[in-house]
Structures
1.
Amino acid sequence: MNTATQTAPLTLEQLRAQDAWNQCVDYEKEHVNIAKGLPALIMNSGLMQVLAFCHEKGKKEKGLPYEQVATHLRTWLSQRFKNVAPDEGFERFMQSLLKAQPADYQAITTEAYAWLRWMRQMSSARLKQVKEV
């Protein structure tokens, strides 16, 4: 096998970036603004409260971008923490967080911040790219 064609496994940062890039393909300006604001909301209110807020907003047509961004976040977190929160659906994910050990909950929240850092950057970049075309 040629070593020039072998690639190293992706780092966690690369995986986050790739997931954010893929998820934000259809994002509009409102999605980008939501992604930019979620870390501060989580810091002030907590992950579960923010996910509940986004879910509630998503029930109204104008709030759909909130639910979409939150769903993408839950999907990422459920993939990263299969043992703690194996289901990305709102109800089951929230139940998993309610039962999570404090250290697991803290790790999930930390991961949410890390993923959202990438989502903020990637969604802004993709939005500009779409507008330029």
Note: The radius of gyration is 16 Å.
2.
Amino acid sequence: MCEMKGSIRSQAPLLLGVNGLFVLANALAGTFLNVYLWKSRQDFVMIGWFAVSQQLAVGLSFWLGGKWVKERGKMNALRLGIAVSGFFYLLVLWLGTDAAYYIWPLGCTLGISTGLFWLAFNTLYFEITDAKNRDFFNGWMGLLGSFTGIAGPWVSGRIITWLQGARGYRTVFTLALCIYGLAAVLSFFLKKRKSGSAYIWLEPWRELRRKESPWRTAAVALMFEGMREGVFSFLIGLLVYIATREESKLGQFALLTSAVSLVSYYVAGKYFKSRFRSQGMLAGGLLLVAVIVPLLWKVSFGTLLVMGIGTSLFLPLYVLPITSVSFDLMGRDADSVDKRVELVVLRELSLMCGRLAGMFIFIGVLSVNDSRHVITLLLLGLGAAPLGSWLVLRRPLRGGNL
């Protein structure tokens, strides 16, 4: 048994490596993807629908792909997710400036790749961690994500500025393709995992219908997380570009905020203890709202940078606890461990519902009024969503039930 655990944990650096390359490719190309679409068609609602199409495909691929991951194998799903990501950027290169008029097929393709990769990755992540080391492992994932976030967007911004326009974007998207290829090659060094029992299609809904299930509380908390995450993931970078009209400035923004995130995730991963989860979520939620306030006076590179650095500094206080809580529930007992794939799907569907809710609010509001002041108020409202997570989790966390 000990030998098996040692073998599983020896795969952790490889899994982090695959994750790092996948995230690096996303940082290189994904940071500027919405800017690329915006330059072709300046429409906030179009960008919103692009994000919606992605999330619908992510949720569907999680649910449908769950059977494949549980009964057939996680490795092939992980590799297919990487391959489809590469195919997505091939499509973007082929369509060129017309890509903004094909947001639904493009968004669905990107969503499928994202869903397959993260479904397989999260299942593997659960298998190589436990309640004792999960906060530490999350810290390392955040650290790696921050490091790639420093290098990727800065390099992309420099390339696009240097090569000026379309040629720069083509170079960046091609570079991302090559990195996806490296991630696929590295994934073949991961050991094949054993298949599980039969996949239960309706298990996420059954779990939520059980009155005593802790997932009912966790799912609501994850929805609040998704409400903020869904809009902030694409809007902040776009606002930086609109405020500066320079891709290099967006690269600088990502470099600085990721550098701060690198330090904050390292410190949080090393020193954050599970007994402080409730206090951490509350403090993190309040501070994430506070850093948005300067935008009420002026939306500029400076105020956006204050918000970005503040977010990078305080986000681990919120993210580490809520991430660890959901994965701890997957290891709560033998039955939960056996149904870990279905519970990963439940976790993602909860996040997806929150993201979609946030995006629909974004689309609805900006369809009526897309002024800078309205966008700032929208950011402030959605930015307060993490406090909703804390409200629903505070009692279970303090009582030791989560």
Note: Confidence is low (pLDDT under 50) at residues 1-8.
3.
Amino acid sequence: MKRKKLLLVSVLIGVSFATSLSTVLIYNRISKNSAHNFSVEQQNIPTSFASMSEVNFAPTDFTAAAEKSVHSVVHVKTKYKIKGQSLGMGNPFNDPFFEYFFGQPQGRGRQQVPEQEQQASGSGVIISDDGYIVTNNHVIEKADEIEVTLNDKRTFSAKVIGADANTDIALIKIDAKNLQPIVFGNSDNLRVGEWVLAVGNPFNLTSTVTAGIVSAKARNINILNAEMKIESFIQTDAAINPGNSGGALVNIAGELVGINTAIASQTGSYAGYGFAVPTSIVRKIVSDIKEYGVVQRAVLGVQISDIEDKLAKEKGLETLNGAYVAAVNDNSAAKDGGVKEGDVITEVNGVAVKSVAQLQEQVGRFRPGDEIKIKVVRKNKEIELNIKLKNRSGNTNIVKGADISTLGAEFEEVSATLKYRLGFNSGVSVKSVSKNGAFAKAGIEKGFIVLKINRQTISSANEIEAAYSNALNSEDDDDKVLFVSGVYPNGKVVHYIVNLK
């Protein structure tokens, strides 16, 4: 049996050398000896063409595109604090495995490390002359302070306007005027094989430009950890590294076509492939955040899957393209519009969709209340349906941004040691509780670790805000409730009901 290597996917946020370089997740496996050498002789490739005038060559001088875009890309530096952890002093009783099974020993030479400040860096793209900047959610989600350095070396403090974990896009703002915003391009027009440039600040090396091609579109790499994630990445071989997160992917006209987000790597550094959120998604997310303070997310209300050969044979499908509808939810836009279990969705508003990722990208461009036309294949016959999209609550209302401060609680990350001791990989700790807040009225106390809200796993304060917003915007007063499940550091599991009426 051939030996296998793990291929890793890494978010591109650059971290100071005092901390880890990047976050890595297992993505796929590749064979150890997958490379092959080809020669002209072996492949019978002709060394000349009958008519060179019939061949169109793309320009390979990228200076104009680089000059046009580099002044719109900024360096984003963040500071955040991590909770101190108890460190052992050479005592075997301080071993974490001993602590996990027998609890924390008392008075056995343990030393509490104080709260530590960490630094990280990424990139951002100026989208307006008055200081709005788009970046990745993972660049700023833990930040206590955000500093933005322009290409001309001026430095500003930035504030977060809004963020969306489902697409890993965030909008921040600096107090500045007469900036040079980037020009938005149309990511739909990108073709596989087309030249693109990646502009960012890898390893704190500012204003770095690299070139490559679009190697794939609508790529789903399963890196986002969010309930309603949309992954339809542009894949490129332009060299990008930790620190490129939030930077620009531009075409040869210098227009923004994507926001660089992740890399596929065995080491955490560039190894051939990078992934960017297309501007078709970025434009919608940023527009919603600016106008409403929260993303207006339309849903079809179906359970879908990609069509593999096995599924096609099992269901008697004559196509491998599209998204297979495994189930249709009650009170959903899809059900109202006539979608049925077993349908294959192949088109949205005249745009062909060949996969779940492409379908999610197309639907993600719309808001609740928008009407779209979809084509489905049903019993191998094509049918066109009119769909009026809804939000996840089953209505067409505009979702209002929720002020999480009304919960009367501050949140912080749970230390790795505590997660390990309690046996959980997720959770957010309640740092403080105000006397008149909704959490205090429900009985939640300082130190409580929120694990689930309304049956959804919680891993960040952003997810608490999303759950709060969904409940608050429900049409039914009976649904304006948070069912909060969690655990205290002593291991006591508790469930609370937080009334939002």
Note: The longest strand covers residues 208-219.
